[in-house]
Amino acid sequence: MLIQFIGPGGAGKTTIAKQLAPKIGAVCIDLDEYFLKMEGDISLYIQQHGYLAYARRNITLYQQLRRSIQPEQSVILVCSSGFMTYALDQDAEYKTIKHQLLAEAQTYVFLPSLDKKQCIDLIVQRQLNRAYLQADPEKECLKISQRFDQYASFACTRVITHDTPENIVNFLMTLLAAPKGLNKGVL
Asked: What Gene3D superfamilies does the entry give (predicted)?
């Protein structure tokens, strides 16, 4: 079983994945962590090579991860915050990858709120609380402002993360236990 989490940075994807994985006997794989392992610091990579090169490399690493997952494995794959927002011509295969990812039944989009202003406020607050990011409030606000409509429009199950991690994990466990085709919902 492959479960994929998408959404902006600060939406809770990695936090929830790491709490959910042991409860369902899955392995948690974070694309950002994999990028760090393979290439080093993401910010430094972007500074040295540019965002376009970063996006292309991230797509390649995503493909490597997908190919490495065996059918009998249970995996939660957490995508990078911008993974679903790259230009469709970013990579020859990206459009197909994005379409496939969105079409899969076990893809969940994480947002703190479906209200754009509230979502932006919560994301910026969460990102500023991550000291390692050295986040700039204006840049974070602009980033989520530009990406919100895209994330909110995806036709996969939405997970609203303005709740406790425990409640979100329980919600996801309920969805995962439901018969296929009945797991579309919003927490």
From this structure: P-loop containing nucleotide triphosphate hydrolases
Report the distance separating Cα 42 and Cα 134, nearest Å.
13
> The domain that contains 92 carries what CATH number?
3.40.50.300
> 150 is in which domain, residue-wise?
2-177
Give the residue from 17, 23, 25 showing the smallest Cα distance to 1.
25
Q: How confident is the model over 44-56, as pLDDT tens digits?
A: 999 999 999 999 9
pTM: 0.87
Q: Print burial letters for 90-111: b (CB count within 10 Å at least 16), e (below 16).
A: bbeebeebbeebeeeebbbbbb
Rg (CA), the chain: 16
For residue 168, give the nearest of 153, 151, 185 by alpha carbon. Answer: 185
